[in-house]
Amino acid sequence: MTPPADKTIWSATVNKKSVELLINSNAVLLDVLRDQVGTLGVKRGCDLGTCGCCTVMIDGEPRLSCLCLAGQVSKTSITTVEGLADGAHLAPIQACFAKYGGSQCGFCTPGFLVASQALLVDNPSPTDQEIAEAIEGNLCRCTGYQQIIESIQEAAKIHRGEVAPPTPASDPHPDPHPGGPGEPSMPPGHAK
Amino acid sequence: MPPFTLHHPESIEEAVETASKLIAQGDDFDWVAGGTDVVPNYKWRINPKPHVISLASIPEANQTSRYEIGCMTKLSSLTADNEVHPLIVEAASKIASSLIRKSATVGGNLCLDTRCFWYNQSEDWRRSIDWCHKADCGTGADCRVIPNQNTLCVATYQGDLAPNFMALGAEVTLIGPDGKRVMPLEEFYQLDGMKKNVLQRGEFMLKVTLPKDAYDYEGSYQKLRLRESWDFPEAGISAAWKKGDYSSLRIASTALESIPKTHDDQVSEFVSAWEKGATISKLSDAIRKSVKPVNNTALPPNYRRSVVRILAKRALNNIGCE
Amino acid sequence: MSAGYRQQPGNSSSKRTDGKRIAGKQVFPPPGSGGSRPQMKERDLDYIPESVGGKEPQPAGSHIHDRIRTGTVVGKSLSLVDSNAKVTGQAWYGDDVRLPNETIGKILRSPHHYAKIKSIDTSRVEALPGVIAVATGQDASNSFGVLPVTKDEHAMAVEKVRHMGDLVACVCAESEAIAIEALSLFDIEWEELEPVFDRKMGLEDVDEPIHWRGKYHLSRTNVQKRVFQEFGDRSLVENAHASSHGKWSMEGVHHGFTEPHAVVAHWDPNGRLQLYTPQQVPHYTHRALSTVLDVPMHQINVIRTFVGGGFGGKSDPFPHEMCAAILARKSGRPVRITFDREEVYWINRGRHPSDIEVKMTADDIGRISGFDIDALIDGGGFASFGHVTSYYNGVLATAPYELGSFHYTGARVWTNKPASGAMRGHGAVNTRCAVEVGLDEMAEQMAVDPIDLRLANLLPPHSRTITGFRITSNGMREALEEVRNGSNWDKKFRQLPLGKGIGVGCGFFISGSGLPIHWDPNRFPHATVHIQVDMDGGVTVHTGAADIGQGSTTAVAQVVAEVLALPIEMIHVRSHESDTAPVDLGSYSSRVTFMNANAAIRAALEIREQILKAAWDILGYHPNTLVLNDRRIYYKHDPSIGVSYLKALHKAQEDKGSLIASGAYRSPPMGGVHKGAAAGLAPAYSFSAYVAEVDVDVELGLVKCTNVWAAHDCGKALNPLAVKGQIIGSCHMGLGQVLSEKMVYGRTGHLQNANLLEYKIPSVHEMPHVVPIIIESCDPEGPFGAKEAGEGPLLPILPAVVNAVYDAVGVRFRDLPLTPDIVYKGIERQRRALKLDDCLELPSPRLEHGPMQEVLVARAAEHKTRDKARQRTEDTSHYVNGVLFGFDPNIPLEDQVDGWRMATEPDPEQLAELGLAGKAWLKKTQREMGRD
């Protein structure tokens, strides 16, 4: 029987939370994140660096976690897709991917979000070409990339402050018609 | 992932010491820089070793200046902003994808393992062809590209930086238990897809050094690939010169054989009597004739060889060599 | 982060006494509590059709569903209803299902292309500490397959393995590392057999055919299915004015979805199987599991996880799903099996590698008189959907054109390679490319514009194709006109410099398969949807529609929201579990929107009726005079008289509690009665036309597609954002097939590129700028007029690019993909033929219109008027293929024309001249050979 791999203590900050784990010496970051930290939003598409689904931010830089030996990135700060939203708020990039069709089956989406978030933090006014370069390591089989680039451009507008974040998605439809007595009188809009 | 112990030396001395210790114990090991070459190979269980030594924490390997580039320098940090030579910036920006360049390093790219579609496959896959010469798992298997021979490995070197550093006349510094060695980059590579280079056991590449006049050179790198992301070069030609000075012209190629190489012989044959318009195609043709790609990458070798002529011509045209 | 949306519902104006916001305050008030806005939303007249008093234009005429439009969501660009789960990383795909106490399963795969298993000894595997259970083919000998007629798969090889990577055995263990180690401990005795890789060899007799079909087996060949179809007047082929003859070789391509297959199986404490799998067609898996495990279907719950891309590649029941269930049953613990990328290629089911021969002829007034196709397709080791693919390669290539005659021979052979199957544009893509390029070539011979050639030969709306398919709505003409104008075609075609080119291609695809393959459509519907509305007013929709990213869940939610005039947030679609979902055939053959949304509309209409009836009770006005709008029902002539949705709902619920409704969809009876008539039969068809522009690096042979104008007739875009996404995505996938993607089998028969580095899916840099153009032909039977938009848009991109490359360099290519080496070779050959020194001196093709051009333009103009009248059902006369050739549509064609044929088997005298695949007809079945 093959001897089990050496174990080592590994610590990092994942999505602003400190974690300390006992990992195999040969562990790859992607496996640590999925199997031990539990951030299942980090996806495994090819496991060989050619799809970008596993992209996470390590100290602000987008990196492929499937090619990253965990031991080489201990004591870093890691952000996964789960760490993009701030509490109850979606990050602009997330909201724009949802709104402008940047996500279809959604499997590549976490990687795209992290890669494009890293871009926008660096460069809130990217050209389409710069966006293409930033996401050239991410493979999407559904969208043909075009709506992804549009989503990133829309998010960039929010980052630049040109566009206010749209009204919160939570209050879209306050019930206009209370069920009880005292129905509203003349509703303004109706078809003849 | 096969089991191994990862070591994290924090200085050159410690790295050499770790290596020496493992050698003394009879343990085999690999160096790892960014991991973008080693990790996929290990996942496919291609020649894994029980120990892996990371160069990530060695300060000297992480230093970069105009003339000295540490082996741990990330490809993504080779940008014009850092005053890196434009030819190196151009070549680096064409490597793999932007995400891989965030991890991949200069040293890793220069020491890239040679590639072959009979070799870069999973363990099950390779077992089903009864292995090959390069990863024979103790069977003494034949080469699968050129059948019935197991003396030479013809796996292709597909690094992008090497021909460009060569065209600029760069030197590399190697360091190991027997001390430090400095040599021109073209001497670093050794024919045979298994040997690949001159690194001795326990020795690693510390840095690349550009000669003092490197910044007088203007260069161009032509990379043939199917997609503008992810793909290794199917053929690559780099040309550089001190503008207008034909005697300074250097041309190097990659992805056409087991090693990147310079084409000094072909260049010197033509530069002495350069004829505007005519020489360029003769030289390009001579370079085409001097390379021998084999069938182990995505595109067929006869095509790759044919278009070397075009790539060379374009590289020369780009630098104003007419 | 200050910028952003609120993810959780919450009302920021409500504060705690300490001033902090109260998190999670619900938006939708409980019944009777009143809301924060006193007025309802106005009816959105822009999204209410003209025919019922709104402002939405209806150039293609009115629709039966117009009266139930409320202007709520249909026709508006919406986020997918599950997009928040996807952008936050909370969407759960196959490998994200982690059950407590799970074990990890691994599959032992065949190292041989073709071999008998003489024995398997698992004792060393079982002895390995940490191994929980081991299974081999002996544990499940029942066969299964996606089509009932070709059940030729097993959970694991029973007697022999049929391709490298075929399943041999499986094991589950405490950890992945142990499971991997266990795989090396199987002791297997093999007897290797002679493998077949070349599809042409599949037509020959061999000692050991890959499968044996008993008396139906064709001699001793590896032919799995052969097809012959001949329609029309073959005499028209003689005296051709123009002709095209092309022999194509197309490589196999893979779906390349980003999520590898994964499955989790668990037998619950009551002994029921819970199986989690990213499936497009959970119902077939359900059936197959029952067969293989010998467990009744009601003791199995198939749970569809989120599906990380399908494209047809996750629509077969898969052996690894059986393996997980078997291991879980043996071990008593949950088993998770996740593929690595290589295994994804071993299971394959991608597009068939094909040899296709197309012969076309046109007569002296530019009518397409002959249309001959021969398709030999490489099925790999198993049947999969191949039976159907064999037909699709022919029958889906005829429309949108009116033909004088059609002749098709097809054969699908088994080879010792991973099985081919259904992939986006199933069976229609390769022949479509060949046909459209053939048209381009004929146009060139006739010196006419290829777009005008097409426009003068289109079938009109409400007609029948030569093989008897019923076409209803048809937006082909408009699509062609749109891309012609959008691309500025008339200023570019045959006028661009060397290296730049522009090309056109059309497409035609089914919107749902007419026949459900497991049952009689006359007795059981295609799709069923249940709706439940409880006191809270929220609407729960139960459907088995499998959302694979295309947005079927959103489409179903949308149509229900539209009918009930409710915000889409109030519609909750439950589609993951077979326990709660009514039987549904899932996501394939582009059926979900058409069939599921139709079923959902029917269910929603039932609910609507109950609510309106309650409102009638309350208001005293007949439902015909009531308007539904934004949670209020009011009298249409005096909106002040109204009742809230909730109040009406509660009235409707009196005495019976929550409202329940069920809706179903079945396709109308249609199509011919000949053998194979059901293949390709659909309740509606989509049409598309693309123009592509390319840049060819003439020296290197590299082709880059720069611009695409993509018009697709989807009937009615329920969600334009999603339709555009499908169009652009289809371009990407088709572009991969035409320029770079191929499954490479080397000289040893091994798949050389089972990974995403060497399998070249276009990156963002290879993607052209796509202008998606939505054509709305308003299908009479589609939900609100909608048809499919997921597969059809892929078809035209291939021929558009190939034709554009011709326009750029003047060389016709018939080998796909057009990798640079192929293009380089073609250009070099041309250069030598023209005796030029440099390929940069090659002439670009030019066009000077011949006399035929005018004839075609005139006919196209005439047909345009005809089509418009038929589309708007102002002209309801009968129209069948053949009218263009002067036949009376009201008399059966065979009664009018002597030579009119409708044959599904070749005449003996035809046998000598059959094409490559047609050679399969030279063989006899075992029964015919007297060996039954």
How many domains make up the 3D coordinates of chain A? 2
Distance between the first and last residues' Cα of chain A: 81 Å
The description of the largest β-sheet of chain B is: 4 strands, antiparallel
What order do the helices and strands of chain A follow?
A: EEHEEEEHHHH
Report the β-strand fraction of chain B as a percent range: 15-25%
> What is the CATH architecture descriptor of the largest domain in chain A?
Roll
Kindly report the name of the CATH homologous superfamily of the largest domain in chain A: Beta-grasp domain
- Rg of chain B, rounded, reads 20 Å
Task: Give me a quick take on this structure.
Chain A is an alpha+beta fold and 192 residues long. Chain A is 27% helix and 15% strand.
Structure write-up:
The complex is a heterotrimer of chains A (192), B (322) and C (932). In chain A, 27% of the residues lie in helices and 15% in strands. Chain A is an alpha+beta fold and 192 residues long. Chain A has two domains: 7-80, Roll (Ubiquitin-like (UB roll)); 92-159, Orthogonal Bundle (DNA polymerase, domain 1), CATH 1.10.150.120. Chain B is built from eleven helices and eleven strands. Chain B has a four-stranded antiparallel sheet with strand order 4-7-5-6. A four-stranded antiparallel sheet of chain B has the order 8-9-10-11, with helices on both faces. In chain B, strands 1-3-2 form a three-stranded parallel sheet, covered by helices on one side. Chain C has 932 residues and is of the alpha+beta class. Chain C has a seven-stranded mixed sheet, sandwiched between helices. A seven-stranded mixed sheet of chain C has the order 30-9-14-15-16-8-31. In chain C, helix 12 links the parallel strand 21 and strand 22. The longest helix of chain C is centred in the middle third of the chain and has 28 residues, at 592-619. Chains A and C meet through strand 6, helix 2, helix 3 and helix 5 of A and strand 1, helix 1, strand 25, helix 14 and helix 15 of C. Strand 6 (89-90) of chain A pairs antiparallel with strand 1 of chain C.
